[in-house]
Amino acid sequence: MGGTACIVLALVVTGVVMVTTSTAEHDPGGPTTTVSLTAAPTTEPGGGHPVAMASLAAMMSSIRPSTVVMTIGRSSGTTVTTGLVAESGGIIVTTWAALSGAKSIIVIEPGGSRQVATLVGVDHPSGLAVVRISDDLPAATFDNGDPTAGTGAIAMALELGHPTHESPTPVVYSGTVVSAGQAVAADAVTSTFAATAVRAPLSHDDLGCPLVNGAGHVSGMLEKTVQDGASTISVFLPAGLVLGVAQQLVSSGSVIHGWLGVDTSDTDPTTPTSTYVGAASTPATGARLDSVNPGGPAALNAMQPGDIITAIDDYPVRSSAELTTRLYPDRPGTPVQVTLNRGGAPMTMTVTLAAADPDAQGSNASP
């Protein structure tokens, strides 16, 4: 795949707002959930993107019923992580990094009740895992759009109350998006898939927590945090990837992705491989086709080396990693709308993804 994007890190003071919630007595995730804010997020002068308190409360009220805390029991002790309800029926998605080695998984619901969870499946390439509980919580709404670099972003983490009956306490973080739609060299997952990097001081205990857009929908899930001096970069996997992988794990226990039949690179060949400090002078704006596999879906639709894919199903493709990310959850036989640029002229075509050709180079991974 093409080179990864680099990120400029700068010291920033990012504020935290504590949130209190109230819910219906027997419906901890029901529509009566309300959120009140006890403080406003703050940022360093000139670096913030303030959000009205009423808007913040509405955003948190929307996502809170679908966000849970999990305690992970291991022989070495207990850790905590966050999960999101991906589907009805008690289906919860989180990161495998948070669950790996677990001997027990206990889910703490928004109202404070506790449920034993069972592991449904793991997808190691994307670093995502799904568990199931017997209760039926409302599913979060996942948004396939990405934030824009330079804009403000809001993430909601959860703090676990000490008494066994106490509900988890939401904590809101605000920060600035420093990269979106490009790979981030934070770990093997974010180096392969496109991610959203936000300058906000979350921690390893917050893995699985949602990045929330203005409508209160999930736009990403925290996969990794990386410290650079006094600044923390929190890296989120896109919501479309998270939901698509979760749905495949539930339906079949594994992820089988379709194959476009191309080898690609970023449109800016001077973009250096990220070592997490530094920035590309010109962000990539698409995925260039370096080669087209004979007999593959792209070749059958007359795609050519030099074509630049700029969108899949009307969602932007800004890098080779983002092309991988957009296609990864789609099974063979899925039709996708591909928008590309050929010699300055835009073109759109519908392509049906195929099963990977085992003889084709690089066929074991999208695209």
Identify the overall geometry.
globular
Largest sheet: 7 strands, antiparallel
- For this structure, the CATH topology of the largest domain is Thrombin, subunit H
Tally of helical runs: 6
Helix residue percentage:
10-25%
Provide the spatial order of strands within the biggest beta sheet. Answer: 7-6-3-4-5-9-8
Reading the helices and strands in chain order gives EEHEEEHEEEEEEHEEEEHEEHEEHEE
CATH architecture of the largest domain: Beta Barrel
- The chain-level mean pLDDT equals 82
Structure classification? mainly beta
CATH secondary-structure class of the largest domain: Mainly Beta
Q: In percent, how much strand structure appears in the residues?
A: 35-45%
Q: Domains counted in the coordinates: how many?
A: 2
Distance between the termini: 9 Å
Spans with pLDDT under 50 lasting ≥5 residues?
1-15, 24-32, 40-47, 270-282, 361-365
| CA-atom Rg in angstroms | 20 Å
Number of E-state strands? 21
